[in-house]
Design goal:
Blueprint: E1 6-13, E2 18-22, E3 26-32, E4 37-40, E5 46-49, E6 54-59, H1 75-78, H2 80-86, E7 90-97, E8 106-109, E9 125-129, E10 136-141, H3 146-150
Antiparallel strand pairs: 1-2, 1-7, 3-6, 4-5, 6-10, 7-8, 9-10
Amino acid sequence: MSKHVFKELKFYFRNDDTWTVDHAEMSDVWISRVTTSYGRISGGRMQEIHPCKSFKIEILPEADYIKDADVSTAAMVDGMFNRVIKYQDIEKCEIVFEDEKDKEPMEIYFPFKAKDAEEIDNVYQTSAISKENGKLYIVIDAEETVLDVYKGQL
């Protein structure tokens, strides 16, 4: 029986920026209650989607850079960690597994509630950078914030 081992997570932001975080650049990740649903994304055709109930991740300081394949205008000056802190607009991630090179990555959509009429920033996304260890902590959850989950590390 083969085990699914993360190779990387690729984050997609609502302004079309992306950010790829390698397995070695994550301390911990928790994606809870992934389900299968069907819906329209951006007015397109009905398709299978995989929303989750909650997402939590600890990202090591080594991931605070822009990879060649990523497009990120907002992060060019400040780095990806500050970009995540400044804008709460992570829409989804792709999970790329090491043992499934020929298979499509699994897209996970995060809980979303618009902060304002522009519908870009997400009320449910909170994040913080630890002053002690330099890690970026992200929580996307309707009930808990980054301070609720990671208060001991911040």
